[in-house]
Fold this protein.
Amino acid sequence: MGKTSGQNHIKTDLCSIFGKFWHTLNGRGEYKKVHFRILFFAVVFLSGVLTSCGRLNMKIIESGNQDVYNPTETVSDELNTPVLRPAESQAVISMPAETSGNEGEESAGHSNIYEETVDESIKSPGEPPEVSETSGPVPDLPPENSRGKQDVNQDASSAITRETSQGKAEQKSPGQNSVPESVKTAPPEFPKDSASIPSQASEERINIVNPYVRYTYEQMMDESLKLADSYPDIISLDSIGNSVEGRNLLLIKLGKGDKKIILCGSHHAREYISSSYLMKMVEEYARAYSSNSYFGKYNVREILDCICIYIVPMVNPDGVNLVNKGIDAVGNQEAVEAMVMLRPSYREWKANINGVDLNRQYPAQWEEKYDEVGKPASESFKGTAAATEPEIQAMMKLSNENDFILAASFHTKGNVIYWADRATVNLIPGVKDMAKRLVLLTRYQSMPVSEDPAIYGAGYENWFRLAFLRPAFCIELTPYNNTDVPHDDKKFDSLVWNNAKYIGLFLAEEALYR
């Protein structure tokens, strides 16, 4: 009705104008017929144009009130919809208003396809040793006591300091791998991981942890002391025991909460990149806590005020020492040289210095675990009995003496997550949904429930599940590249960090809901 009335008004006005011109033309005589025809056609034409414009404007207004369906947005929403925890609303896990601007990099950095060339610096079997190490065993640290006792932390730190000082003295000798000053900052040729910079932090910063090199025990100990000095309110150091050759098994406590989770790396010597990953995690989370910043979508201070993350970065320091420094750095060279070598070089060594594969040592269906070697070797030997090795005894003691809500053991290679085995899959509530959320976060592949104890038995995560009936994950951090030689450490960001930077905070937050 409204549109018809408007058109009638337009026509009436035009007729009035036409009438005035008609009277004018009548007074002019001979040209009136010509002018009449021109004006007549002009009026008809303008009437049609204005009527059409009215219809066009109505269409624009009507379409603006309709919901437009966007299939691209629907697909994106579906892919990014997380699995909610019980009784959790979508708002609980949505991105906070203040973030570090990581969305773009997350999308670009979650590809699991990686074509890597073998590090040219890796020498063929029989290569001359890179360094020598002559220090003897380090005195034991006092046993771990409850958190908050300052005298215990001071004793532990002083013992670690003494050991680190010995390591520094050794590094000064010719031919050894000293920790360069570049440890303080990432090498300039490597792209900085801007997504890990907290939203309130300056881009100009000094990094303590350097993950872009072959990560050694001495470097880890040195950097841990610097981290504890830089962030004393959130980091404390301890030792859970000693390795076969007497190295301290470093424990880093990150957080203030009464609830605890445990993360560990380098059960396998050649997988030492898991150690540098955990050390970088400590630094980045501590920095975000100190500056009261978000890290990605996570409120770090809120989480670490409620949770304490126990981190054992290097379960197998003797094996890592052999991989990165060569046979001349081993205390009992003759014993190691007599062991079975299942791979061509010591760069591919997996076991501890006794030739026992530490992730086949835990008393969780150990008897059923397959052992194709049956004697000390570079890998695969499960030992003469369960839990014979000091590193395993220390990890079990730590786990038994603390009420850890969940655990994660980091390995390489594969970009996959092992989250359950046949022995416990039906005994741990909520773990399947937790695994789905972790897969969504990392873009790693979720593996099926492990069915054969001959294959999955005697690992740390399997023992933790069986002993405590709580979630435990085995996370393979890096892409598989068809070799057992360690990755090129210079590519740490693309190999590890871009996908895995949030895992620690994710697990800590999950623990708050259990």
Q: What stands out?
A: DSSP finds 16 helices and ten strands in the chain. The radius of gyration is 34 Å. Residues 32-64 form the longest helix (33 residues). The first strand starts at residue 235 and ends at 242.
